[in-house]
Write a structure and sequence with these properties.
Bound molecules: 3-methylbut-3-enyl trihydrogen diphosphate, magnesium ion
Oligomer: single chain
CATH class of one domain: Alpha Beta
Shape: globular
Strand order of the largest sheet: 5-6-4-3-7-8
Distance between the termini: 9 Å
Largest sheet: 6 strands, parallel
Number of strands: 8
Radius of gyration: 19 Å
């Protein structure tokens, strides 16, 4: 990858030349952000949601086409009931208050994960938000909510069997087409904030060849400049997909 930079005469720091098409973020550290300030965890989630606005704007400015955010995992149901309720109400509030603005900014909202298990009122709001914004093309925003990578694979296998697909027809493309993210490309870059270095069941099938970027910054503090740093780091990586450096250089 060429580490050239462009900045279009802007006083701002440079934007990396090679911008990943699809960025996925594990938005982690809201609780610790709040705790460090002596605030309730809820306040961390509120600030985290606020930060998402900045990141959405920055993604459009940087030319990222697809952003996938991990908002609620299938494992997060194990949290205290009150916190689960807060996390559910945040998505509901975002849809109620921000949908119009997101639509006007050209954001296409998609949901990845299982609707089943989510309260029916919220299910309907999620479906409405996706339907309302389906023709937008400025930024695709995949919201991973009640999402688990293993759960996604299990459901795909169940559906493949239910559809009576013969085993000889099962290949990578076929399985990809049964994933929630289909027909979107796999993430080029997966970012995890808060210092944890694990995937926590995120995009298990799709991230096999993604570049990972880990930062100790808590999600509420991961603003545009932090995203720029991640993109610059991405520019320094060589994606070999199993090949040698020589082969990569010959191809470019
Ligand atoms: C991320 O922040 C938000 C969700 C997982 C929904 P956390 O709530 O996990 O914050 P920490 O990891 O406890 O700091
Ligand atoms: C991953 O964060 C899930 C989301 C960001 C929604 P967690 O905070 O739930 O992950 P673990 O439990 O520390 O692995
Ligand atoms: Mg966490």
């Amino acid at each position: 990858m060429v580490a050239t930079l462009r900045n279009n005469g802007n006083p701002e720091p440079p934007i990396p030349e090679v911008v990943p098409r699809h960025v996925a973020i594990i938005m982690d550290g809201n609780g610790r952000w709040a705790k460090a300030r002596g605030l309730p965890r809820t306040e961390g989630h509120r600030q985290g949601t606020e930060n998402l606005r900045n990141i959405l704007k920055a993604c459009v400015e940087f030319g990222i086409e697809i952003l996938t955010i991990y908002a609620f995992s299938t494992e997060n149901w194990k949290r205290p009931r009150a916190e689960v309720r807060v996390l559910m109400s945040i998505l509901e509030m975002v849809i109620d208050r921000e949908l119009k603005e997101l639509h006007e900014s050209g954001v296409q909202i998609r949901h990845i994960g299982e609707l089943e298990g989510i309260a029916p009122v919220l299910q309907r709001k999620i479906q409405y938000a996706c339907d309302y914004t389906k023709d937008n093309d400025k930024l695709i925003l995949n919201v991973a909510f009640n999402y688990g990578g293993r759960d996604e694979i299990i459901r795909a296998v169940q559906q493949i069997v239910a559809d009576g697909i013969p085993s000889t027809e099962i290949d990578e493309d076929l399985i990809s087409s049964y994933m929630y993210t289909s027909p979107l490309p796999d993430p080029d870059l997966v970012i995890r904030t808060s210092g944890e270095v694990r995937s926590s069941n995120f995009l298990v099938w799709q991230s096999t060849y993604s570049e990972y970027y880990f930062t100790p910054v808590y999600w509420p503090d991961f603003g545009k400049e932090e995203l720029r740093k991640a993109l610059l780091e991405y520019n320094r990586r060589t994606r070999r997909f199993g090949q040698t450096d020589e082969q990569i250089n010959d191809n470019s």
